[in-house]
Amino acid sequence: MPPNASLAPADPIAAVTHADPYPYYRDLASTRPFYFDPALKLWVAASAAAVAEVLDHADGRVRPAAQPVPPSLAGSAAGDLFGRLIRMNDGVAHAPLKAIVARQMAALDLSDARSRARALAAALPRVDHDDAHEANRWMFTLPVLAIADLLGLPLERDTDGHVSTRVAGFVATFAAAMSPLASPADVEAGVAAAQWLTRLAQTAEDRETADIGVLAALAQAGGDSKMDPATLTANAIGLMIQSCEATAGLIGNTLVYLGRSDWQGADIGASVDRVARIDPPVQNTRRFMAADAMLCGQQVKEGDAVLVLLAAAAHDPSSAAEERAWTFGAGRHGCPGDALARVLATCTVDALLARDVHPDRLAAGVRYRPSVNARIPSFSSNN
């Protein structure tokens, strides 16, 4: 049993980083499938049926109507980038570009993506003897570099052929600025990261040779649909942002799972699929009601917030036989890159194992990064 697992989480937000939140989630799904939490001041959907109903509801929005961009980012380059992301928009601003992105993701050759990720892994040498340091570094780096490569962005290399990780660092910096837990310094760094990433994507679009890759395909499809080029650029960057924390969590949680089982000779792809279901990287999401509605048998009001417990749905005893990875969402905001995320997570875990990183050593020193929705391990050499 993980350390401190016997103490139940204080609430559904605290459950995200708890050592073992799943008995708590199962209890919520069984006994309080949809309820109002007066301390958190929001509704909570916990059962699989409730989660599905909320995610499918036409009046559920991903952002509050009066706050399309977090106040801390508003008026900055980071806020402009955030406000253009399709996963942060609904309705007319969301559907056409969402369809274009979904088509591009569905058209990806996953075998090619796997080969590209492995080639990038070969250009990322192990730089530290400490397993924890290497795992923490790789899980935030290789997936982002692989997405950048698929987009057609230029990746710098040194004289030895080692690929630069700079783009991954800027993506992680921007992702941290998006968090409700971000400090003023995090936000300031996120603004600089947004500016750098936007320049990188625009430079790639302007290159005469920029005729291959997902970025070029998005630009072509968006041009045919007369879409705003800045919004297309933002959502190309958004693909890297989505590959950052969520895929890092999938990688890290897979390493924890392997470290607590017989990991030598394990089927890594199957392990990633299992972890996506039982220890999901994205534990919850939110919806904000755009109108009064009857939801899960309860009268909810316009402006009410709903905390959607994807991880509780995954452990709902009433749907135990369902082989669904709720962490990728559902409905109009379901993640179109779920298959790619699994491929990149598998490649990263494979690469770490090939470099003699031992999951059992990692699992002995695991904590979870502070977050309100993402379950991402932070490995330490010390228990």
UniProtKB/TrEMBL annotation:
User: Where does the chain cross the membrane?
Assistant: none
List the InterPro entries hit by this protein, alphabetically: Cyt_P450_CS (IPR017972), Cyt_P450_sf (IPR036396)
Query: Which Gene Ontology molecular function entries are recorded, alphabetically?
Result: heme binding; iron ion binding; monooxygenase activity; oxidoreductase activity, acting on paired donors, with incorporation or reduction of molecular oxygen
Q: Which UniProt keywords apply?
A: Plasmid
Q: SUPFAM superfamilies, per this entry?
A: Cytochrome P450 (SSF48264)
Presence of the UniProt keyword Heme in the record: no
Task: Tell me the protein family, please.
Answer: Belongs to the cytochrome P450 family.
**Would you tell me the protein name for this molecule?**
Cytochrome p450 oxidoreductase
